[in-house]
Amino acid sequence: MSGAALRLSGLACLRGGRLLFAGVDLVLAAGGSALLHGPNGIGKSSLLRQCAGLLPIYAGTIDRQGSVALADERLALDMELPLHRALGFWARLDRVDEAALDRALHAMALAPLRDVPVRMLSTGQRKRAMLARVIASGADIWLLDEPANGLDDASVALLGAAVADHLAVGGIVVAASHQPLLLTDPVRIAMAAHVPDPAQEASCD
Ligand SMILES: Nc1ncnc2c1ncn2[C@@H]1O[C@H](COP(=O)(O)OP(=O)(O)OP(=O)(O)O)[C@@H](O)[C@H]1O
């Protein structure tokens, strides 16, 4: 993971004909982290989705070195399957072995729930399952959208430990959060500073 890198240069995002943000720059090397903050609807999730390659780039560039995993509000797990098998679907796609999946379940204290169908999990347990998917993926770059939402204090501490471990081995983390979170010394991006002025917005129509 030591070659991981993420570079955003002059990044802008257009959604529904509206320029959400522009001019976002960020350079992260192995072990680096960033925290996106700002009010609801300002574009934090949109920026993470651009980094994951799921939303088009309106202007600027994203240069990624390494694989990417995104945890957002979408559960993306088969509700009818036991947790272990539902996560196994992603583990096969990510080409990671059973041991990696078991380590991720353990990291988020989900091992006792491995045989419980996803639909029976609580909100916080589902959130932990989404995070376990990212941990198991072995991806270099973790994109975490409000990762602490719905987690109790013990689970936030587990997530903090998983993030610290990931950074220690040269991973990269970009998180969007309203809460000061897990990351000890992130690059902070205040999204409000990147809201275009109305004249610029009008020129996008
Ligand atoms: N599919 C879409 N088409 C058009 N506009 C969208 C779409 N999805 C989201 N938006 C708009 O894009 C803006 C940014 O949304 P985004 O989810 O990125 O914000 P956010 O900063 O993550 O907000 P929150 O803190 O509430 O999670 C919002 O105004 C939202 O309504």
Describe the secondary-structure layout.
Layout: E1 5-15, E2 18-29, E3 33-37, H1 44-51, E4 59-65, E5 68-71, H2 83-93, H3 98-107, H4 123-137, E6 141-145, H5 153-168, E7 172-176, E8 187-190, H6 198-202
Parallel strand pairs: 3-7, 3-8, 5-6, 6-7
Antiparallel strand pairs: 1-2, 1-4
Question: If you had to describe this structure to a student in words, what would you say it looks like?
Answer:
The chain has 205 residues and is α/β, with parallel strands linked by helices. It has helices spanning 44-51, 83-93, 98-107, 123-137, 153-168, 198-202, and strands spanning 5-15, 18-29, 33-37, 59-65, 68-71, 141-145, 172-176, 187-190. The strands form two sheets. Strands 5-6-7-3-8 form a five-stranded parallel sheet, sandwiched between helices. Strands 2-1-4 form a three-stranded antiparallel sheet. α2 packs parallel to α4 and α4 (123-137) packs parallel to α5. The radius of gyration is 17 Å and the shape is globular. The protein starts with a strand and ends with a helix. The model has no long low-confidence stretch (mean pLDDT 92). The structure holds adenosine-5'-triphosphate. Adenosine-5'-triphosphate binds at residues 15-16, 20, 40-46, 176.
